[in-house]
Amino acid sequence: MPIIKHEIYIDAPINVCFDLARNVEVHTETTTKTKEKVVGGVTVGLLENDDTVTWEATHLGVKQKLTAKTI
Length: 71
Known about the structure:
- By secondary structure, the chain is of the alpha+beta class.
- Helix content is 20%, strand content 30%.
- The chain has helices at 14-21, 24-29, and strands at 37-41, 52-59, 62-69.
- A three-stranded antiparallel beta sheet has the order 1-2-3, with no helix packed on it.
- The chain starts with 13 loop residues before the first helix and ends with a strand.
């Protein structure tokens, strides 16, 4: 499985950043251009260990689904 690593400095407490990164509603709010929506798995709240979430969005005119699992 590919791993993407990205680093950025954010002037906020680590627990706030962590909770925002695993919040399904926050992600949905930030993807309005692609009309991304949750279609399976955890649909609201914070993702926990071993949770899955399936997203559906249209990118470059193609409707796609992506299922992610937290580890």
